[in-house]
Amino acid sequence: MTTFCSQFDPVFNRRDMLRKCGAGFGSLALASLMSDESFASSLSVKAPLFAPRAKQVIFLFMHGGPSQVDTFDYKPLLERDDGKPVPFAKPRVVSGATGNLLKSPWKFHQYGECGAWVSDLFPQVGKCVDDLCVINSMHGSNSRHGGALLELHTGSDTFVRPSMGSWITYGLGTENQDLPGYITMCPTLTHGGVNAYSSAFLPADYAGTPIGNASIPSDQATIPFIKNADDTPVDLQRIELDLLREMNRDRLAHTGPDADLEARIHSFELAFRMQRTAPQLQDISDETQATLNMYGLDNQATRNFGRQCLMARRFAERGVRFIQCTHSYKWDQHSDLKRGHSINAMEVDQPIAALLVDLKNRGLLDETLVLWGGEFGRTPVGQGGDGRDHSPQGYTMWMAGGGVKGGIRYGKTDEYGYYAVEDKVHLHDLHATILHLLGLDHTQLTYKYGGRDFRLTDIYGEVVHDIVT
Amino acid sequence: MTRPARLSIITATVMVITATVCDASEPAAEQINLFEKKVRPLLAKHCFECHTGDTVENDLQLDSLAAMLRGGLRGAAIVPGKPDESLLVSAIRHGEILKMPPKRKLAAREIAVIEAWVKMGAPWPNAKPLAETAEHPENDAVLFTDEQKSFWAFQCPVEPLRPRVSDGQWSESAIDDFILHELDEAGLSTAPPTDKRTLIRRAKFDLVGLPPTPDEVDAFLADQSPQAFAKVVDRMLGSPLYGERWGRRWLDVARYADSNGLDENLAYANAYHFRDYVIACFNKDKPYNQFIQEQIAGDLLPATDDPQAATERVAATGFLSLGAKMLAEDDPVKMQMDIIDEQVDTVGRAFMGLSLGCARCHDHKFDPISTADYYSLAGIFKSTKTMEHFKVVARWQERPLAPPEVILSRDEHEQQIVSKQAEIDAAKSEATAAIVDHARQHVGEYLLAAHELLQREEMVRTATVLGNIPEATSKPGVTLIEAEDFARGNVSKDFSTFGESIGVLVDKGERPNFVEYDVEMEDAGLVQLEFRYSAGDLRPCKLVINGELVRRDAAGELTGGFYPEHQKWMVQGFLELKAGKNIIRLEHPLYFPHIDKLLIANAPDNVRELARFEPLSDYEPFTELVRQWFDYLERTKPNEDSVFAVWHAFVAGSDLPANSSASAVELLKDTSPPTTRDLAIRYQEVFAHASDSHPPNGTDEPDRHDPLDSFRKVLDDPKGPFAKPESIEAHFAADAVASLKQLRDEKKQLGDSLPILPETMAVIDGTIEDIRIHIRGSHLTQADIVLRRLPRILAGEDQVPIGDTQSGRLQLANWIASASHPLTARVMVNRIWQGHFGEGLVRTPDNFGRLGERPTHPELLDWLALRFVESGWSLKAMHRLIMLSSTYQMSTAWNERAAEADPDNKLWWRMNRRRLEAEAIRDSVLAMGGSLDLSMGGTILPTANREYVTSTTSVDPVAYQPKRRSVYLPVIRSALYDVFQAFDFADPSMLNGQRQSTTVAAQALFMMNSRIVSEQTRALAVRLLGDENLDDAGRIQQTYLQALSRPPSDREISRGFAYLDQYLAALTETAAGSNTRLLAWQSLCRAIIATNEFIYVE
Prior knowledge:
The complex is a heterodimer of chains A (469) and B (1098). By secondary structure, chain A is an alpha/beta fold. In chain A, 31% of the residues lie in helices and 16% in strands. Chain A is globular. Residues 1-39 of chain A have low confidence and may be disordered. By secondary structure, chain B is α+β, with helices and mostly antiparallel strands. In chain B, 46% of the residues are buried. The interface between A and B is large, with 97 and 102 residues.
């Protein structure tokens, strides 16, 4: 099977290199092959196609679908016409029966120099609006969690495809060889689960490495197998690995050159370093109390997501390419909108604001693209007395840092916030734009599988140049 | 690139229309101006990318007037002068049918330009007269080009000549000749044969997926006969472990999984029948052509007398069912087409290496498969029933896993139950009718009773809610019941989700939900009934007291939400209870509101003292009928034509409405009754008269002028006050009760003796239909119907029509499974070759099309395919043939010159070194610890069928602890077992004929840290240390023999000793007190199992 892409050719592969050098193994000293320094893996840093604006991505995923008209898409007419029927057709395909226009239970205020309207659900994020590029005209194709979630993560709502984090890691490699290039914290196991961060037909190196899952509190979540089942002390493990390396080297001397065997020798060293680095990184005792408080770790409500945001910053600092935090399956307010969205927003507002401020203070925001949003938005019409149904027709996501213009809004929905109508941004366009910000051309980043070239944006996607600095 | 031949489906009618409208006179200057300045640039910018040139979407070209008029698959693009009838205009307006450009709608002014242009007759400068281009260019053309027809994979394999080779001694079979010949040509030589230890290890992993035992190795070493290896191969092929190993490989192709994945991840708890079927087929060496037929059309094959075979055929069609599906797709048509697409794609790639799925949206860009061919095949699967329904959450079909006659007798038995139920219903209906008929004579009684009820209901609204008064609830005579303390019910109790200590009733999946409370009363009398509940949606319940339905809307109001703060006490009514035990039953077709408590107290005095009418006779009105009367009267109150207008006016003390039915008034007024009771009597008389003078059925038309007719209508109204209630069984006559009981007993007996057959996912033929081509793959844009048939590039253009009585699956299966199919045998022998060598002769095993790779050894591929068919499609014969070749038995020895010339080893100058797959790694580790459980078949999935495997709280319930072989571990899509995930298990949501082999840190972490490796190495160490016949050198030797199938060298033994010492020394510092010797041995074992030598097969 071909595991290297055709146009792109980023995978610096030892076997390929040797083949290209025409040297063969015999002429290279075996000892030098064993040193980690000389070893280039498929995760090695690869140069982007053109100057990147962002080096890494942090995706804050609000599973369930936050309502745009209650958060970042202010619609005065919705309040005026509360209770009236929506004056245009509802979508042909809907996931449930809905009623008349339902005004937002929250007040909106203007924030920042740009004067963007943000509801009382996000007072802390509101203070950061001058760094936000709020896209009000997002739209997707699927009105169910499963399809929409996959479409957001992989570009396809029907088939299993590599996730955007996998494409990005495939395209750029990762800066820190002691950590996975693509980390997803507390991912959901529902609505597609692993398929939202799997590499599908891309090599497994590019799959997201989960830390726990949504049922595990973030302070107890770990990378699979990172912890020794018997708590074997590290020095003993080191002795064992030394023996293993010796046996493997003997074997390699016996078999003759073999890049796979060699890669596997290397992988144990990487694993050993990773199992030291990752827990260190998850040990946040080196953070100041002020930082912990800023992320809300001192508060029961914000602790869980706050820790995810803090970890995201720590991973970003250490060069992890794609980091996802998931606020799992809480935003699905078919009823009880007021209570549900209040609780959800309270859990994430302060941590998200803290992440933005912290990244900015550390000078990381410029090179880190922060993306916020759910798998879709919600209807401006009500469902039951106090709920909203799913709506992929027009909703809001926002980005910050990483080469996007701050303090702007892009695109519009209609006067009630139902359909995206102006400067529409499809999920494919969002993907194209994210790749562009990272210095990748979404039409060039391809992978040949089963006899044809695949890309994140399939045959679609246009870069939204207007939001790029 | 040559243009792939396309099917012309343009109809004659379109031609006629276009011919009549196109009278292309030269346009005027301003028209040219409009066209050149506005129209052409718009077309160029937005349309030409897909609708010009050789390969256009849906055969529609938009770069000339003629082409527009000729149109594409959907017909002409424009009707000059008539924008509203022009498809192009409707498409750019993004109409319901077609939306173009698909992504971005044109601006309004741009649309206006095109509309204006069409309206003025679509002037196009220098347009060619239509006659020159009217004929669709493909109409007369051949369907396929010569180049397409001559593509290698579409030619039947021909018996190749055995090539001359340099070393005749080396060749064991023709395989070796073909291989050696190519090596000779390249000037390369073969690797030396591998040693016997390596060979048996290779063979065991290849066929069984486990390392050979030291005894097996010894026996092979001792056997000096020329057939020694053939014996080993035969023994392994005879082992049931073979089916588990190779069956698993087929399961990758069949995208087998135990859950749906994608969105709603429901348990495919019966999918394992298909897995066990596959394993059994490999073990019994079922001919591969039969294996194909059964998987595609097992249900349609001619009847068999062998019950085992019949059962297998049912399980086999699970192949078509068990793909991943979006079960929560809101658009049912899209869901069905997506499922069909998945089936077409899987069948195409699994059996023929053809990526048919590519032709769903457009003619295949590279292979000669048109959308017409695709939708011909899709029609076959549309005519196949895979799903029970497509409502969210959709339900896949399952069938009893049994021979047809057993299913038939089960179905007959079920039918008897249905008939018995019908008898029960009829008996109930009859008994109920008797009661209702009798009641019809007592209209007056019901009017009075309903009036009483009305007064009581009005008092309910103003009643004091006792539940809100803390001291009231503790008074004597007040009974408080916790909702969850029901005497009988079919719901679960939830004490936490909706408020601590608030127990609410939650659905367990049985319909309807019900609960019953037994309430003892000292005296009979009216009570006030209250519920405390919360409801965010309307969920009115039936309230049944002592078998009589008294309300349909109990707990039927919204309280503002479902949460604890929304809990409210509400009065449900004043109801009659009897002395002694009363049964209060609540019922809801789906889910209850969140009911927390019930309260029963004596009705307040003013309610009890409510004026009661003296009955007209000793007739006792039935509560349920009173309720119906009450509802009917309330419903007809606003209706001034109602025969009850007089009644309503009288009880309200108001004047008759002006429009009230004159005749009814006439009938009632003459007595001018002084009291309500008198009026009730009058009504009773009029109704009796109406009833008695009922025109005989069928003889007379009802006379609309007869004033009595409106009274009769009330009596006959199926929704009227005398509608038959569902059941008033409590009042049935004794003989009716007795005969009902007997019928029910009989039904119960039938139910108890109904054979329970295991079910499995399976398909059958459904409604037979041909479907339309879906333009751009969308069911919203459909073109012409295509007949069900097989892909024409392979099956030819003259095919026998499939007909209206069958789906065509059987024809499809027989065609794929035929010896003359050019791809089927090749694709499978290639899969087998790949299973033995790591790569196939075609290195894209699932794609033999133009974009797939060409065979490295086409003659060898053909030779193998021919032998495969000759052998009766025997897989085991193919294994034998391949494994006994010298090619297979080469070593992996490195050869620098060969590596330089052929780095990918496409010429097979040596054997490939291969990493074990996830299953073989896990199984081998378990085997090392002596823990592998070799029991076969069945399921260890803990989740019930169709239940969610990963809940919305993301808890994964599947335990992978059992020591069964990996093939029996649940395969959960979207939440794959992390060991599988780490070691490149194929994504079970899609067909995958070749797994990747990556090296990632997670695999190393598994070896270093996982519980499995720790437990098994410990077990191995315990066993070694417990063997008192061995000294430590012997133990090291034993470990190497077991793990690596070879003895250690002296150096390795001494290194082992040194290591144990070193480890013990380090241990005594850190782990004093524990069994340090065991820990040191465990560490040594783990290091050996973690070596490349253990995990890579030579």
